[in-house]
Specification:
The complex is a heterotrimer. Chain A is built from eight helices and seven strands; from the N terminus they run E-E-H-E-E-E-E-E-H-H-H-H-H-H-H. Chain A is an alpha+beta fold. Chain C has a single domain (about 10-85, about 110-240), classed as 3 helical TM bundles of succinate and fumarate reductases. Classes of the chains: A alpha+beta, B alpha+beta, C mainly alpha.
C-alpha cells in the first residue's frame, strides 16, 4: 500500500520543529510500523538527506524504547502494544499518518522523534528499590511465603516497561501510572515494606520536581499503556502517599 | 605451553570456588574509594556488577548505549532462570545443574567455571527475591518452577514470559540506588568505541556521547565489559537492533583474545521470516515446548497443499503428521536442547517439508495439549460427557492462562490465531556462546580488562541450555566479578587517579575520530543496512545451522569482498556532533564484518561438530553431531594481529575430571 | 508531614480537590432536599419553604456549614485553577493530532471548563436568590397556612422563586429556566467524572469497592442534577 506520512522533524532541542510530508510506496501489510519507518529512512538516505531519528531497540515490545505518537495516540491505534508491535495491516492504502514524538515538558525532544526520558530514571533513583546489598546471605527465597494474589498483583505492576506512553497520552502529562506501578509493586511485597513510607514520599517529590502534570483520573493512561497497567495502582499510590503523609514519624 | 593461563584453582571441584574466594586479595574499604571501575553495558551482567562494585565502595562509571540502563536486551529474555534449589524435590542438586550444563554445552566448557555457576545459582534467587523481583508463586505462596529443554528436573524460576524483564529491573533498581548515592556515575546514550591501554593495562575507554556526538575520555583502574553477545552479525536475530560487538571487538583488537567465536545458538522456536523488509526476528519462548508438539506433514503432496492454501494444517490426519522430534528422540521428545531441535527442523525443511511459502517453517501445535487440558478441566468442573467443542473451549482457557501473552504476541505479528491453527516456527539466531576469553577471575588476556555475561565465553560451551543465560549474567555480576576483581585491584591502591591526558588516551581518541570522520566523509550511495543484510545472508547461509569447509572458505572470501565494498560505498548521512543513528550503525557493522570473518575462520578450523557448531562433514549416520574429543577438546582463543585473516589461534585444553566425555544422547 | 508538603505536592492538591468535591456533593444533597419542598403546593408549601429558608439563614450550625461550603467552593475552584495551570505547563508544545476520545471521556478532560461554567452559575444563582434573601427587598409572608397572623413575618423566598420562573412576572423567565437546566446538565457531567475521581484520588476506588463507586457515581451524576433541573421546569410550566 501507499501512504502519506506527516513526520515531526526537529533538529535538536533548540529547533522549533515542524511536520514534514513524505510518501512511502509498496508497503507490505505484514510490516511492523518501525519496518515501515526503516523503508522511509532508506529512501531518505538514498536521496542524500537526513533520516528520521527515532528510539527503538528490542522490537518485540519489552524494552520500552520505541515511543511514537501515531495519529493522535501513544503507540498508535491498537491496545496492549508498543509501536514496534503495531503492524501496517492496521492501516489502509492511501492513509495519511501523523507521527509525533512524546510531548511533555519533562520529556524534552532530543531530535525528531527521540525524547529524553531520563526523568523516569531519576524517579526510580529517588526510591524505586529495596535497599538490600548483594551478599549471598539474604534469607532463603522460600523462607517468606507471599500470597499468590499479592505476588500476581506485584508482577502485573512490575511489567511496566517505562516507555512513557502514560505521560504522552495524558492530557496533563502526568507520570502517575509509571510512579504508581513501581510503588505498588514494592508495597505489595513484604520485602518492600520497611521503606514504603519514604519511598512513596520521595518518588512523588521527584515526580513533581521533574515537571510532570497532575493526575486528573481521566484514565487515558490505562487504555494506552502497552502493558495495560491498571488504574488500581494509582489508587494504591494515592493511599500509600496519604498514609505516608499522615504518619507522624515521617 | 599455551600462553593462556586459566588460573583455575587447585583442589576438588566442589571446593575450588570457596577456597578461591577465601584466598583472593581484598581491597580495604578506604582504598576502594580511591579506585575507579568502568562497566560497559547495563544488562544483567553489567547492572549487577556495577551495583555490587558500588556497594563494596568502588567508584563506578557505567555506560549504556540505550537511553536508560533498564532497556538493555536482557529485558527481552522470556522463559526463566535456572537454579539448583531443588524446591520441587525432584532430585536436583548443584552437581546435576553442573552436569546438565556441561553436557548441554557438548563438553566444550570449563568444568570449574560451570561448577561455580551452579554453586552460586541458588544465591541468585535469594538475592532477587530480596530485591522484590515478583517470581511466579503457587497457591501456598512459595516459588513455582517449570521445565526447560535438555534437563529432567524442574529448576527454572520464572515470572510469566517476562523473567528477563523482572530480573533486569531488579538489577536496575540496585543500580539506581547506587546512582542516587553518587557511587555510580551513569552515562546513558554512550557507546564505547575503544579501550585505552597504559603500560599494557586497561586504564580507560574512549566513548561517544550519542546525543551530542562528543568523544569522551574516561579513565579507570579496571574496565569491565558486559556488552552482551554478537548475534546481530547475522542481521536477522532475536537480539535487539542495537545489540552489537563493538565494545568486545575493540577490546579484541587491543589484545583481548576472542574465544570460540563460531559457537552461536540458533533457537528453534522463532516466528519465521516473512519478507525482505524484516528487521528482526521474534522468539517464542522455549517454555512453549512444554505443551506444543512440533511436526511437519509426512507426505510431500500435503506440504504442497498447505503451501498453496488448498489444505489447512488442521485437515492433515494424525497418521499423516510427522512429529519428528518425538520420533527421533523418544526420551526427551519436544524438549531436546536447542541445537538439536533447530537442526532437526532444518533437516525436515531441507528435505522439502517446510510448511510456509519460503519452505522454512514447521508447525508448533497446541491442539493435543488443548484437548488434554480441556478433558481434565471438564472433570474438575464436573461436566459429564462434554462435547468436543466444550473440551476445546476449556482447554483453550487453560493454555491461555499459561501462554496467553505469547499467543497474543504471535497473533499480533502473524495475524494467525494459534489457538485455532498451529503456530509456524523456524530457528533463528538467538545467543552467542563464544566471546572474549577470560580466566577463572573473568579477566581477559589484557590485565585490568574483564568480561562478564554473554560477552565472555566461559560457561556454556558449544550450546547453552535454556534459562541459563540469565543465571550466568547475574552470577558473574553479583557473585563472581565483585570478588575476583579484587585480586587485580589490590595491587592498584597506590596508583592514584589515571589521567586522561596521557598520550595513550590522545592516540586512542584520534583513531576513533579518524574512523568516524571517514564514515561521515565517505561519498557512498548505499545505507548501512544494505551491507549489514548482505553480511547476514553470507553468515546465515554458510556459518549458520550447518557449515562446511567449502561454504566457509567461500564465505571468508565473500566477507573480504564485502568489507571493501562497504568502506567504498557506504553512505552515512548527518554530522559527527549530533544524534546520528546511521553513524552508530556504520561503526557497528564495520566490526561485525571483521567478526564475521573470524567466526568463519574459527568454524573452518574446528573440524568436528559440537553443540551449535555443526559441520556437515562430521555427523553420525543418524545425522547427529559428531564430536572429536581427541583433537578438539579445547577452547579456540584468537589473537588479533592486524586483520581477522591473520589472527593467531591459541588453544586452551579442556580437562574433564568430574564428568566423562560421552556422545550426547537425548534419545 | 515535612516531606509531604500537604499543600504543595501534586497528590496533596488532589486530596484537597477530593475532600472539597465530596463535601460539595453532600451539600448538593442537602440543597436538593430543600429545593424539593418547592413541589409542595398551596399555602402550606409556601409556609414550609419560607420557614426552611429562615432556618437556613439563621441557624448557627447551618451558618458554620455554609461558610464551610463557600470555602470549599472557593478552594475547589482555586485549587482546580492551579492544577490546570500546572498541567498546561507540563505540555508546552501540543500535539498536531490528539485523539483523546479514544481513551477517555469528554467530561474527564473538561473538568476545568465545566467547573468554570458551574462557578458562573453559582455566582448568578447566588445573585438571584441568596443575595436577595440576605440583603435585598423581600416580600413578606405575614400569615400562616391557617390564616393566623404570624408573630414575626417571614421573608417570602417562595414568592421570589415562583416569580423568577414566572413569565408573567419575569420577562427573562424562559431564558432563566433554560440556563438553569443547562447548568444542571453541566453539573451532571462534572459529577460523572468528579464523583468517582474523588474516591480514586483518595485511593478508595479500588478492588471490590471500585465497581460500586463507579455505579454510585453514575447514579448520583444523573439523579441529583435531574431532580434539580425538574424544579425550574415545573415552576415555569405550571405558571406559563
Amino acid at each position: 500500500m501507499n501512504l502519506t506520512l506527516k513526520v515531526w522533524r526537529q533538529n535538536g532541542a533548540n529547533d522549533k520543529g515542524r511536520l514534514e510530508s513524505y510518501q512511502v510506496k509498496d508497503i507490505s501489510p505484514d510490516m511492523s510500523f518501525l519496518e515501515m519507518m526503516d523503508v522511509l529512512n532508506d529512501q531518505i538516505i538514498v536521496e542524500g538527506k537526513d533520516p528520521v531519528a527515532f528510539d527503538h531497540d528490542c522490537r518485540e515490545g519489552i524494552c520500552g524504547s520505541c515511543s511514537m505518537f501515531i495519529n493522535g495516540e501513544a503507540h498508535g491505534p491498537g491496545r496492549g502494544i508498543t509501536t514496534c508491535q503495531l503492524h501496517m495491516r492496521t492501516f489502509n492504502d492511501g492513509d495519511t499518518i501523523y507521527i509525533e514524538p512524546w510531548r511533555a515538558a519533562a520529556f524534552p525532544v532530543i531530535k525528531d522523534l527521540v525524547t529524553d526520558r531520563s526523568a523516569f530514571d531519576r524517579i526510580i533513583q529517588a526510591g524505586g528499590y529495596v535497599s538490600v546489598n548483594t551478599s549471598g546471605n539474604t534469607q532463603d527465597a522460600n523462607a517468606l511465603p507471599i500470597p499468590k494474589d499479592d505476588a500476581d498483583k506485584a508482577f502485573d505492576a512490575a511489567t511496566c516497561i517505562g516507555c512513557g506512553a502514560c505521560v504522552a497520552t495524558c492530557k496533563n502529562s502526568s507520570a502517575m501510572l509509571f510512579v504508581s506501578a513501581k510503588v505498588s509493586q514494592l508495597a505489595l511485597l513484604p520485602q518492600g515494606d520497611p521503606e514504603r513510607t519514604t519511598r512513596a514520599l520521595h518518588m512523588v517529590e521527584q515526580m513533581d520536581k521533574e515537571g510532570f502534570g497532575n493526575c486528573t483520573n481521566t484514565g487515558a493512561c490505562e487504555v494506552e499503556c502497552p502493558k495495560e497497567i491498571s488504574l488500581e495502582n494509582i489508587a494504591r499510590l494515592n493511599r500509600e502517599y496519604l498514609r505516608a503523609s499522615v504518619n507522624p514519624d515521617k | 605451553m599455551s600462553v593462556l593461563d586459566s588460573k583455575i584453582p587447585s583442589g576438588p571441584l566442589a571446593h575450588k570456588w570457596t577456597h578461591h574466594k577465601d584466598h583472593v586479595n581484598l581491597v580495604n574499604p578506604a582504598n576502594k574509594r580511591l579506585i575507579d571501575v568502568i562497566v560497559v553495558g547495563t544488562g544483567l551482567a553489567g547492572s549487577s556488577a556495577a551495583a555490587s562494585l558500588a556497594e563494596m565502595g568502588y567508584n563506578v562509571k557505567a555506560l549504556c548505549f540505550q537511553d536508560s540502563p533498564r532497556r538493555a536486551h536482557s529485558i527481552a529474555a522470556q522463559g526463566g532462570i535456572n537454579a539448583a534449589k531443588n524446591y520441587q524435590n525432584d532430585g536436583d542438586s548443584t552437581f546435576r545443574l553442573f552436569y546438565d550444563t556441561i553436557k548441554g554445552g557438548d563438553y566444550r566448557s570449563r568444568e570449574a567455571n560451570v561448577y561455580r555457576l551452579a554453586e552460586v545459582s541458588a544465591s541468585i534467587i535469594d538475592q532477587c527475591v530480596a530485591q522484590g523481583v515478583p517470581f511466579a508463586r503457587d497457591y501456598g505462596g512459595l516459588l513455582d518452577n517449570r521445565s526447560f529443554g535438555g534437563v529432567l528436573v524442574s529448576r527454572t524460576f520464572y515470572a510469566k514470559g517476562q523473567t528477563g524483564q523482572q530480573l533486569l529491573l531488579g538489577a536496575y533498581s540496585a543500580l539506581s540506588r547506587q546512582i542516587a548515592k553518587g557511587k555510580v556515575e551513569m552515562l546513558n546514550r554512550h557507546e564505547m568505541l575503544d579501550v585505552v591501554l597504559v603500560g599494557g593495562k586497561a586504564r580507560g575507554i574512549i566513548a561517544r556521547n550519542l546525543v551530542t556526538g562528543e568523544i569522551e575520555r574516561i579513565s579507570a583502574h579496571a574496565v569491565v565489559l558486559a556488552s552482551g553477545g554478537y548475534g546481530n552479525v547475522f542481521f536477522l536475530s532475536t537480539n535487539a537492533m542495537g545489540s552489537n560487538v563493538t565494545a568486545a571487538w575493540k577490546a579484541h583488537k587491543k589484545g583481548a583474545f576472542f574465544a570460540n567465536p563460531c559457537f552461536t545458538q540458533i533457537h528453534p522456536t522463532c516466528i519465521p521470516v516473512s519478507g525482505d523488509y524484516q528487521s528482526k526476528l521474534t522468539l517464542m519462548s522455549e517454555s512453549l515446548r512444554n505443551d506444543g508438539r512440533i511436526w511437519v506433514p509426512k507426505k510431500l503432496e500435503d506440504v504442497k497443499a498447505i503451501r498453496d492454501g488448498s489444505k489447512k494444517p488442521v485437515q492433515i490426519a494424525e497418521e499423516d503428521r510427522d512429529y519428528y522430534l518425538e520420533r527421533r528422540y523418544p526420551s526427551f521428545g519436544n524438549l531436546v536442547p536447542r541445537d538439536v531441535a533447530s537442526r532437526a527442523a532444518k533437516e525436515r525443511c531441507d528435505e522439502g517439508y517446510g510448511v510456509n511459502k519460503t519452505g522454512e517453517a514447521v508447525f508448533l501445535d497446541f491442539s493435543s495439549a488443548i484437548m488434554r487440558y480441556g478433558k481434565t478441566e471438564a472433570r474438575i468442573r464436573g461436566i459429564e460427557n462434554p462435547s468436543t467443542d466444550q473440551v476445546r473451549a476449556l482447554g483453550e482457557e487453560v493454555v491461555g492462562n499459561k501462554y496467553g501473552n505469547l499467543f497474543q504476541m504471535y497473533e499480533k505479528i502473524t495475524d494467525d490465531n494459534p489457538y485455532k491453527t498451529p503456530m509456524k516456527i523456524y530457528p533463528a539466531v538467538h545467543y552467542t556462546m563464544g566471546g572474549i576469553w577470560v580466566d577463572y577471575n573473568l579477566q581477559t588476556t589484557v590485565p585490568g580488562l574483564f568480561a562478564t555475561g554473554e560477552a565472555n565465553f566461559s560457561d556454556h560451551g558449544a550450546n547453552r541450555l535454556g534459562a541459563s543465560a540469565l543465571m550466568q549474567g547475574l552470577a558473574d555480576g553479583y557473585f563472581v566479578l565483585p570478588y575476583t576483581i579484587g585480586e587485580y585491584l589490590a595491587s592498584d591502591i597506590r596508583t592514584g587517579k589515571i589521567s586522561t591526558d596521557l598520550p595513550e588516551f590522545e592516540a586512542a581518541e584520534k583513531a576513533v575520530r579518524d574512523q568516524l570522520n571517514k564514515f561521515i566523509n565517505n561519498k557512498g550511495t548505499q545505507p548501512v543496512d544494505f551491507f549489514h543484510k548482505k553480511l547476514g545472508r553470507i553468515m546465515w547461509d554458510q556459518c549458520g545451522m550447518a557449515r562446511s569447509a567449502e561454504g566457509l572458505t567461500k564465505a571468508i572470501a565473500d566477507i573480504q569482498a564485502l568489507r571493501k565494498d562497504f568502506f567504498a560505498n557506504v553512505r552515512v548521512s548527518g554530522k559527527l556532533d549530533e544524534l546520528n543513528p546511521e553513524l552508530e550503525k556504520a561503526m557497528r557493522v564495520a566490526d561485525f564484518i571483521d567478526l564475521g570473518e573470524l567466526m568463519c575462520k574459527d568454524a573452518l578450523e574446528r573440524n568436528e561438530s559440537c553443540g551449535g557448531h555443526f559441520r556437515t562433514e562430521y555427523q553420525t549416520e543418524e545425522g547427529e553431531a559428531l564430536r572429536d574429543d581427541v583433537n578438539y577438546a579445547y577452547v579456540a582463543a584468537w589473537e588479533y594481529t592486524g586483520s581477522p585473516a591473520d589472527s593467531i589461534l591459541h588453544k586452551e585444553d579442556l580437562k574433564f575430571e568430574e564428568v566423562e566425555l560421552k556422545q550426547r544422547s537425548y534419545k | 508531614m515535612s516531606r509531604s508538603a500537604i499543600l504543595k505536592s501534586s497528590l496533596a492538591k488532589k486530596y484537597w480537590m477530593s475532600a472539597t468535591g465530596l463535601f460539595l456533593c453532600v451539600f448538593l444533597l442537602g440543597h436538593l432536599a430543600g429545593n424539593l419542598q418547592l413541589f409542595m403546593e398551596g399555602a402550606a408549601g409556601e409556609y414550609q419553604f419560607n420557614q426552611y429558608a429562615k432556618f437556613m439563614t439563621t441557624n448557627p450550625a447551618v451558618k458554620l456549614l455554609s461558610y464551610l461550603t463557600y470555602a470549599s467552593i472557593l478552594f475547589h475552584a482555586i485549587d482546580g485553577l492551579l492544577l490546570t495551570i500546572q498541567n498546561k505547563k507540563a505540555r508546552p508544545v501540543n500535539y498536531a493530532v490528539f485523539k483523546a476520545s479514544a481513551n477517555s471521556t469528554w467530561a474527564s478532560r473538561n473538568m476545568g471548563v465545566l467547573g468554570t461554567v458551574l462557578l458562573a452559575f453559582i455566582v448568578t444563582h447566588m445573585t438571584n436568590f441568596w443575595a436577595v434573601m440576605h440583603w435585598g427587598e423581600m416580600p413578606m409572608q405575614t400569615v400562616d397556612p391557617e390564616g393566623k397572623l404570624l408573630e414575626e413575618p417571614l421573608k417570602n423566598l417562595h414568592m421570589v422563586v415562583m416569580n423568577f420562573f414566572n413569565p408573567a412576572e419575569n420577562s427573562l423567565a424562559l431564558l432563566a429556566t433554560v440556563l438553569y437546566v443547562l447548568s444542571m446538565v453541566a453539573i451532571g457531567f462534572h459529577l460523572s467524572h468528579g464523583f468517582h475521581s474523588a474516591f480514586q484520588s483518595l485511593g478508595l476506588r479500588t478492588g471490590k469497592y471500585g465497581k460500586l463507586i463507579m455505579v454510585a457515581g453514575k447514579v448520583f451524576a444523573i439523579v441529583v442534577p435531574a431532580l434539580f433541573a425538574i424544579i425550574p421546569l415545573y415552576l415555569y410550566f405550571i405558571q406559563a
